[in-house]
Structure formats: C-alpha cells, structure tokens
Predict the 3D structure of the following.
Amino acid sequence: MENAPLELQAKIYPMTLKEEEELNTFIDENLKSGRIWISKSQYAAPCFFIPKKDRSK
C-alpha cells in the first residue's frame, strides 16, 4: 500500500471506566495467551461492547 493515506478521519467512541477496564483485561489476557499480538500497523479497528440480555459478562 504505497499510496495509503497517513491519516484517516474516524469517529472516536467514548468508553465508560468499566468498559475501559474490561477492554484492558481482555487485551492483557489475550496477549498473554498468544491469541492476539502487538501490531506495528498504523491502522486500528474500533471495538464495541454489546451487553448480554442477562447482564453477565
């Protein structure tokens, strides 16, 4: 992607403190298990929290 733009305009979605803590826990657990790894890409994808009907994690 030689001609890829250096910056993309994207909307930032705010998270609650609880959502941020849950996301950090998810990332830490999955980094340690090797399911995900740190990327050096200049692009990122958003994540969304969808609550379960029974309110469990």
